Amino acid sequence: MCIIYEYNIKRTISTACVPAAPEQSRTVPAPLRFCLIPTILLIISLIEEMDGNFIMFYAPWCRHCTEFYPIWSELAELVNTKDSKFAIAQVDCTVHAKLCHENEITGYPTLFYFHKNTFTPVEYKGTRDLPSLTLFLSEAFSVKTEGKQSKQPNEVKTYSGMSYLNDLNIEKFVSKGQHFIMFFVPWCRASQRMAPIWADLAVHYAHNNYIKIGKVNCMDNEITCENFEVKQYPYLLWIVNGKIMGASNGENLDDLKAFVEKMLLSENHDPEKFLRKKKALPVARISEETFETFLQNDLVFINYFAPWCAHCMQLSPLWIKLGEKFQNETRVLIADVDCVQSKPICETEKINGLPTLILYRHKKIVSVEHGGRPLDSLIGLITEHLQDSASTDPEDKTNEDIFLSKAKDEL
């Protein structure tokens, strides 16, 4: 259970804690949650001992404090685990006015973050919701740990099937192949629960040549987690050739294995095997070598994207749903092209904006869309051209068409 300690003003630093909440006195029985800090000496002690301290200065009569308390309590449950080196704490300024005056508190609630051995706080002025608070904690700690980046290895270290990733090596690592990556922070209780499960998953797939399991500590690799728009912990992403193809909400080993088996395709780049398997994945990845082969389908709808494009990432879940819709339709192929990995294709097709959605019918462009469209609209577009394709058999050519085709072949 996560604990936020509350010290009795008459006790020393090493004494036991008593419960408290903004609307409670310190003598009312309640779960051990918050650390009331009655003297500057206790603040100094916490700042020297803990890696980080997030402290709320409040008054029990403050309506904003009372409304905010459930969120602050939930943050405490996430952060204050038994072995955590971070503390969520609070100070009642009606009881300890001198302490609040020394910290120049002029409004309630005021939220200060103190780095270890740093007595100049970082004030939190953002939105008072749980996602914003957890993101602030990661960012605040990252400011202090930026110097560690130079010590991080460029090469990926892998032990027992687990690849350890950072800002310097993740881009190259995920650019080719299929990857299942956990983004986490060590102080998060949910991340701590997932850690042993994730390790077991890595061991299970350690000898699988088609998938790599990895993890990223967002407290040490802020840039990476911002690029992947990580807003919660842990965040489990399925990444294929640098592109996010899905996210898992699994909480146990069986759930995660089921997700892997659903997403994993051993021959995801081989057109013949891909089509022969009746499209085991909803979206085919097209490269320079396979472009012409995949384009032989009656209808081919291609999403031209780049991994760094935010709009492309937003479109990705919708594109997967579109692929699932037509997964059993042999005449339709939903695919995508990474314009970073397959730049020559995008240049040939004159792609000048991302994402660009092009629908081909018998290798000819019949529709071009820039940006996203609602799923129903995309389904309707494909259905319309399927009906047109059915009414116009490509083999029903005029004599002139046949003559021109033969003449072209002879040349």
Fill in the keyword field for this structure.
six-stranded mixed β-sheet, protein disulfide isomerase activity, PDI, disordered C terminus, signal, 411 residues, disordered N terminus
How would you sum up this structure, described in words?
It is built from 14 helices and 16 strands. Helix content is about 35%, strand content about 20%. With about 400 residues, the chain is of the alpha/beta class. The protein is elongated and about 85 Å long. A hairpin with a 6-residue loop joins strand 4 (about 110-115) and strand 5 (about 120-125). Strands 6-7-9-8-10-11 form a 6-stranded mixed beta sheet. Strands 1-3-2-4-5 form a 5-stranded mixed beta sheet. InterPro entries: PDI, Thioredoxin-like_sf, Thioredoxin_CS, Thioredoxin_domain. Pfam families: Thioredoxin (PF00085). GO terms for molecular function: protein disulfide isomerase activity. Belongs to the protein disulfide isomerase family.
First-to-last CA distance: 79 Å
Strands ordered across the widest β-sheet: 6-7-9-8-10-11
Query: Mean pLDDT, rounded to whole units?
Result: 76
Helix content: 25-40%
The unreliable regions are 1-39, 145-150, 394-400, 402-411
The shape is elongated
How many DSSP helices?
A: 14
Order of helices and strands: EHEHEHEEHEEHEHEHEEHHEHEHEHEEHH
Largest sheet: 6 strands, mixed
Radius of gyration: 28 Å
User: Which quaternary structure do these chains form?
Assistant: single chain
> β content, as a range?
15-25%
Global structural class:
alpha/beta
GO molecular function: protein disulfide isomerase activity
Domain Thioredoxin: 7-142, 247-387
Family: Belongs to the protein disulfide isomerase family.
InterPro entries: PDI (IPR051063), Thioredoxin-like_sf (IPR036249), Thioredoxin_CS (IPR017937), Thioredoxin_domain (IPR013766)
